[in-house]
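Comment thread on ticket #2218

A.B. wrote:
> Attaching the input chain for the structure job we discussed in standup.
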Amino acid sequence: MSLERGYVQASRTETGRLLATLAATRSGTIAECGTGCGVGAAWLRSGAPKETRVITAELDPELAHGVMDMFADDDIDVMHANWTSLAEHAPFSLIFLDAQSAKSWPREEIIELVETGGMIVLDDFTPCPSWPPLDRGRVDTLRLEWLSDDRFTTVDVMVAEDTSVIIAVKR
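C.D. wrote:
> Ran it. Output below, let me know if you need it in another format.
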């Protein structure tokens, strides 16, 4: 389904392994904002304990229903809905979302969905060794907000030469 929709690669293997590892430490409910072709949700489910609920929301009806069919026999709840619909299933012990999507979503609303001790995981950052973090020669304000927010203990993890992931744990 991903190649048919123009996705050469959805969640990268390096990011997926990190998601599975983080999910393995979670209980309760974990969520993904933006299902896409279901790759991220599959990585989360592969690592999460059996009793941990995995839920994902996708606005595109064709993608959402395709992933629903694909996961019909798996333990992943797929919603054809905007990410804000996840609020009815909160609080979450982990939320995964794409950094590009996070730029257009209200940060405070995302934060409210996570329980104390819960994680927010954002992928698809360009690695940057400097401070403040830069992206294409400009201050990366999204990354800076997450790394400097006192409500979280946050790390920027380089998962491959060309990509990093922010992991923010709510205090």
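A.B. wrote:
> Thanks. Noting for the ticket: The radius of gyration is 15 Å.
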